[in-house]
Amino acid sequence: MTETRLSDPALYDYAPYDSRPPLVWPDGKSIAVWVAPNLEFYELDPPAHPQRKSWPRPHPDVVGYGHRDYANRVGHWRMAEVMEKHGFKGSVSLSVALCDHHPEIVMHAHDLGWELFSHGIYNTRYIYGMDEAQERAVIEDAIRTVKDLTGQTIKGWLGPALTHTPRTMDLLAEYGFSYTCDFYHDDQPTPIHTKTGKLLSIPYSLEINDHYGFFVYNMSPRAYAETLIRQFERLAAEGERGPGTVMCIPLHSYLIGQPHRIGPFEEALKHIAADPRVWITTAGAITDHYNSHYRDGASVTAGAEA
Fold it and tell me: Which CATH number does 31-297 carry?
């Protein structure tokens, strides 16, 4: 029996939700809400990967490509207008190749004061199966490309197409990243065990990701907006009882930026923004606050902090 069990990679410690110490956000807020727009570039005919197809149809998949290109031509601008109207600054999950293909979009986000973090080079280039040199090259390219265009030093990571290797977290910590969005296991930040450096898991949601909402769960725009409100109300109420919570709203503007979806989404943002319990913030600000006030009392990484 023991030999057949999968081993626990021990990337983080177990902490029961009902017995955690208090976690309070700035000004006594009970819930931190951050929005993660995925600004991406999909290749029309990407190189084949031996483990996974980039498109469900044979290449070139013009339908998939064109649908996603709507984001960069129209959807981003519509989504950004609504977010800014209600005080939400994006923490951008960026396919860094967008810096080369459409730098206007990346600079627009930067000029709005949005935070940029890496979602790999392309969402059609997968991390799994890479050797260490290849993975280092991807990370170094992301840091350099964003810095050269915007001056921002990226501190966060979300694997391209949610792909990784067993060494990814160690490499991120080594290169000075402070947070990762690659765990979907909690409603609070979690210190990640790495060989060196401080790396924090920031809650990122699949359940209320608009991709899952519209592609997997087949929600209507109204049902998706109502789901966001229900998620917020429950987490805010739980946060008031002590364990301050985090709500992430991951977006893809080729979906949420469609004319028939943007209205209900805006109503959800308006509802959240009007609530006195909410800290509307960014992933980086959540990381900084947690590390400044709670890191020493939490489970920490092996290595440099031990």
Answer: 3.20.20.370
> What tokens were used for 255?
């979906």
DSSP class of 255: H
Strand 199-201 relative to strand 179-180, pairing: parallel
Helix (H, G, I), strand (E, B) or coil at 227: helix
Contact 144, 152 (CB under 8 A): no
Q: Tokens in use for 296?
A: 């020493």
d(CA 72, CA 74): 6
Tokens, residue 125: 């280039």
Q: Contact, 250 vs 93, CB < 8 A?
A: yes
Residues 110, 286: Cα–Cα separation, whole Å: 19
For 102-157, the three-class secondary structure string (H helix, E strand, C coil) is CHHHHHHHHHCCCEEEECCCCCCCCCCCCCHHHHHHHHHHHHHHHHHHHCCCCCEE
Q: What are phi and psi of 156, to 5 degrees?
A: -125, 165
User: 34: part of which helix (H) or strand (E)?
Assistant: strand 31-39
Q: What is the pLDDT of residues 104-159, one digit of tens each?
A: 999 999 999 999 999 999 877 778 888 999 999 999 999 999 999 999 999 999 99
Residue located via tokens 């979806």:
261
Round the CA-based radius of gyration of the chain to a whole number and report it.
19
Domain-by-domain residue ranges, the chain?
Answer: 31-297
**Are 122 and 42 a contacting pair, CB within 8 Å?**
yes
